[in-house]
Amino acid sequence: MEDMIAAYDEKFGLNEPLWKQYLTYLSDTAQLDFNVSIISYPIPVLKIIRDSLPWTMGLLITTILISWVIGTFLGAFMGWPRSPKALDYILPPLLSLNAIPFFLLGLVLVYLFAFRLRWFPLLYGYKPGTFPEWSWGFARDVGYHAVLPALSIILVSIGGWALSMRAMMVTTTGEDYVTFADAKGLKDRTIFVRYSIRNALLPQTTALALALGQVIAGTIIVEVIFSYPGIGKTLYTAIRGSDYFLVQGIVFMLILAIATATLILDLIYPLLDPRINYSGN
Description:
By secondary structure, the chain is mainly α. It contains 10 helices and no strands. It has helices at 2-11, 18-30, 45-79, 91-98, 102-116, 136-173, 176-183, 188-226, 231-240, 244-272. The model has no long low-confidence stretch (mean pLDDT 82).
């Protein structure tokens, strides 16, 4: 046993001074080398993350875009003075859903649509016993299993985006340039799209960048509830198994993903508002 411990200490560099171990760790992290998984030895951590990341990215990107687009346009119409009054009745249920955590709504959806009505599967990202492949049949199976996890995120998120966009639209419609455009006799559609929505989208995009961390955290818990084969389920398994290498690798990749997404949103700002210019001129 002592010989085995000594061999592993030498293999992982644990017999080196602490400062040298730390420098080695920083160097390996910079190269995205997070060592091997403890519970799945000898599979490298990066391979496990690479296998799980597409599932989470597919679910996350789809749900964020759908909820943000629907919530933004609903909020824009609800904040526009000339919109139908029937839209005022949509806001209360959306706000009620927004107050529910992702995982709690996920449990409710599982009970109603998977356990009681049996319209959708209870767990997993695809039918057990099948092998992942690039085919339309497998893609349909993945989409069928992803309906409930996606709904639990979309239904909760729409209300928040609608409320924030409605507030921005109310503020924007009171600006002088909107009043001036109305006095010039421009069409309501032109004022609504080119003057009100376009100027309200910038704060809405900023809110999206700030909310990415919360959305990712909620998605992780949703994946655990549905046993979805993504980063969240992998992180949960790693925490339960005290797989510190895998936990560190997943947390690092999540932070890197949030930072990258925020950078992309910052670069999109000039497309939304031509007054923003990063060239310094």
